[in-house]
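Chapter summary example.
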Amino acid sequence: MNKPPLTVLLASPRGFCAGVDRAIQIVERALERFGTPIYVRHEIVHNRSVVEELESRGVVFVGELDEVPAGARVVFSAHGVARSVPQEAERRELSYLDATCPLVSKVHRGAERNSAEGREVVLIGHAEHPEVVGTMGQLEPGEMQLVETVADAEEFSPRDPKRLAYATQTTLAVDDTEEIIRVLRRRFPDIAEPHKDDICYATTNRQAAVKAIAPRCDAIVVIGSPNSSNSLRLTEVARKAGCPLAVMVGSYAELNWSALANTTTVGVTAGASAPERLVQDLVAAFRERYLVTVEEMTVTTEDVHFRLPRSLEEA
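The structure predicted for these 315 residues follows.
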């Protein structure tokens, strides 16, 4: 049986970012140095494949610290935590490692600095996302207000319009966020801005790569998990950039092949918490059904690396 031809455009950059790579390395180094069990508060990154692989090696994922036995060792996820979390860990005499992405920590420090200078902080982000919960938890209740949409920005009423600053979740859609920021700037010309964009380089680059391939694609497949903000944003960006069909799957096994009927060019990318092996598994699945030509479409090259905590580097 002759296989139909299919061009696969691989968006690059894609997959793991430096913050995700660092967080996973922290858990792996902790396993090597301290043995099992290692507890992790929340998913270390939002990807079931990564979580399940670590579970198989003796990592125990918990929702809150009260599930961690006294005296045990726990890692905080890459999304960051409220100030109360390490305080609670110390109170319970838990040894902890903080795997918060350094770019999320930068947002935390910026919010703290603005609050200390007397500004009310507007956080642009998605309610209940762990990163947002952690960022809002850096300040006292009422010192930071969440804005999710353009409508929210239009309706927001500050304590003092001249004493405002904004920050953003690091994994938002770049274009949508800029619309919200434009509203805030128009309404509050004195609003203080981050010294550098809070949306991280990896989110920006992965969205730019999807925009670059979208006009050529009949469909784009995003490898990611439903609770991964940056993966969800990639599907939205693909649709807005002109791709007729954009779907997100955890792995090739979840792909609805009938939806790709009559497709001649498909784009493939992966959220910042998805390992490259899932992309290659998907390409292999395409090869079983099609005569595949792969094109790597690179918009930029990333060379960002974050250091591990000193205790693990020494190990």
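To summarize the output: The first helix runs from residue 18 to 34.
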